[in-house]
């Protein structure tokens, strides 16, 4: 499976007015970035796509373990992800900021994600 390649700002990557394509591990990495940046319900063409931040991650009644489970579930739904090899997080209770980094096993090898990409 191939995808259109996006640049670092999220726009289509054009080189000499040609669309660029991405496949393999790079495609899985790009899909992880998209999945984790997009809130569930945000994309009008598929309101079920995205990460359920409002439903399962943010809020007063949400536990840290529940939020982490929702993130892991969202990661596992990306096409090409076979399993999460490593998952690290840092939660600052004072600022209520959660940063995650992880590695996923794919048919193309390990793909690493470091928070705030």
Number of helices: 3
Termini distance? 23 Å
Can you list the strand order of the major beta sheet? 5-6-7
Q: Which residues form runs of ≥5 with pLDDT under 50?
A: none
Order of helices and strands: EEEEHHHEEE
Main sheet characteristics: 3 strands, antiparallel
Radius of gyration: 15 Å
CATH top-level class? Alpha Beta
Percent range for β-strand residues: 25-35%
Specify the overall morphology. Answer: globular
Structural class: alpha+beta
Describe the structure.
With 117 residues, the chain is of the alpha+beta class. It has one domain (2-114): Nuclear Transport Factor 2, Chain: A. The chain is 26% helix and 31% strand. It is built from 3 helices and 7 strands. The protein has helices at residues 25-37, 53-57, 64-76, and strands spanning 2-4, 14-15, 18-19, 21-23, 83-92, 97-106, 109-114. The strands form 3 sheets. It has a 3-stranded antiparallel β-sheet with strand order 5-6-7, with helices on one face. It has a two-stranded antiparallel sheet with strand order 1-4. Strand 5 and strand 6 (97-106) form a beta hairpin. It is globular and about 50 Å long. The mean pLDDT is 93. InterPro entries: Sheath_initiator.
